[in-house]
Amino acid sequence: MEGSVPAIMDDERETPCSETPTSGVTTAKLLQLPIATSELPSCSVVCQLQILQLPDIDFKSIQLHQQLTSKNTHNTTFTMGLDFLKRKTGVIVGDDVRNLFLYAQEKGFAIPAINVTSSSTVVAALEAARDNNSPIILQTSQGGAAYFAGKGVQNKDQTASIAGAVSAAHYIRSVAPTYGIPVILHTDHCAKKLLPWFDGMLAADEAYFKQHGEPLFSSHMLDLSEEDDHANISTCAKRWC
């Protein structure tokens, strides 16, 4: 199925957490572009994704700096040239995702990836991206997806995480076009023990594809970095090709 692109982690990883996530935590991601592999001729994988945790920020100092320099920085927002995208607003998939990463690489800018846990965090992230005229990656983790579904839902067999991720995806798809920016809809680290969550989201991708001709999500991160290379790649291939 075209559209979503799985990601195989190589060195660094973030252990998925079923604990209640902290809202508003921002991570920046530097992604190498999808590459074809000889072992998987019909697939693309994203290798060596690095996570950079942002340091503690002195927001008062930043606010003061903005006040002092506002006259000089007003209306200097970076302007994207998005003629290369088939869909310029809302959730993008397939070639649009790859082309956006190529454009970011060419222009030398990063695309922020924000973990969302509720409609409120989705809206906050979209507003910030819109106000800065920036594309954005919105993603749910296994724990964050369960939180999106509600703390009253038991997560046996990843039921809550599947329901939360799928509901978040539909919500983001419904509101993202109104913000006038391209949005990549991603799911965060999925280790081997969380594969039922991954499979549930793939089932949602398939169902959405049958109706709309594209997957529900833009991409998924399959994090099998604790497994050997053969198990890592073969598990990814089994679920994607």
UniProtKB/TrEMBL annotation:
Necessary cofactors: Zn(2+)
Reaction equation(s) it catalyzes: beta-D-fructose 1,6-bisphosphate = D-glyceraldehyde 3-phosphate + dihydroxyacetone phosphate
Enzyme type, top EC level: lyase
Sequence segments annotated as region (Disordered): 1-23
Top-level taxonomic group: Eukaryota
Tagged with keyword Ligase: no
GO cellular component, one term: cytosol
GO biological process: gluconeogenesis; glycolytic process
Metabolic or biological pathway, per its Swiss-Prot or TrEMBL entry: Carbohydrate degradation; glycolysis; D-glyceraldehyde 3-phosphate and glycerone phosphate from D-glucose: step 4/4
InterPro entries assigned to the protein according to its UniProt record, in alphabetical order: Aldolase_TIM, FBA_II, Fruct_bisP_bact
Pfam families, per the entry: F_bP_aldolase (PF01116)
Keywords, alphabetical: Glycolysis, Lyase, Metal-binding, Zinc
One GO MF term: zinc ion binding
EC number in record: 4.1.2.13
Entry note: cofactor: Binds 2 Zn(2+) ions per subunit. One is catalytic and the other provides a structural contribution.
Keyword Lyase: yes
Matches recorded under PANTHER family: FRUCTOSE-BISPHOSPHATE ALDOLASE (PTHR30559:SF0), FRUCTOSE-BISPHOSPHATE ALDOLASE CLASS 2 (PTHR30559)
Family membership: Belongs to the class II fructose-bisphosphate aldolase family.
Function: Catalyzes the aldol condensation of dihydroxyacetone phosphate (DHAP or glycerone-phosphate) with glyceraldehyde 3-phosphate (G3P) to form fructose 1,6-bisphosphate (FBP) in gluconeogenesis and the reverse reaction in glycolysis.
Protein name: Fructose-bisphosphate aldolase
Lineage: Eukaryota, Fungi, Dikarya, Ascomycota, Saccharomycotina
